[in-house]
Amino acid sequence: MASNNLKAMKALHITRKKIRCALAETSLMELANLFFKSKRTSIPIVDKKRIVLGVLTEIDILRAFVEGRELHSSTAGQLINVGFITAEKESPVFAAAKSMVDNNIHQIPVLKDGKLVGVLNSKDILGVLSMTKQVDSNIKTIEIDLSE
After folding, report:
1. CATH code 3.10.580.10 for 4-131
2. In this predicted model, what pLDDT tens digit does every residue of 2-27 receive, in sequence order?
3. What span, in angstroms and rounded, lies between the C-alpha atoms of 105 and 80?
């Protein structure tokens, strides 16, 4: 169960403020390259005033590929998810986490007056959760080499 401190914490307290966004005219191939080279699975699509137009995921790029779209000439603006989930900067972290769980997403844009002020992802929330109680440093996991 989440502590009372975490339930009271606001999204802006743990939001990543240095983030990468894409403009609507960014090609799907450029975004495929970004997803491949980074650990990102989604990216906010914004206009020049930081207004979020939508969110694009790596699955959206794969879907476009499977559907036969030309990734070099198709743009983020043609493919964005306009029904995306956001949090306001003053939203409780608990509410943002619930939105992520309910919608099976790992990252949401955080807004103030409709403008992007950061991104909150599941790892950020898990990081705060892990600091609320002492975690055993001898975590019981195993590593398996499957390369053979």
Report:
1. yes
2. 455 666 788 888 887 788 899 999 99
3. 15
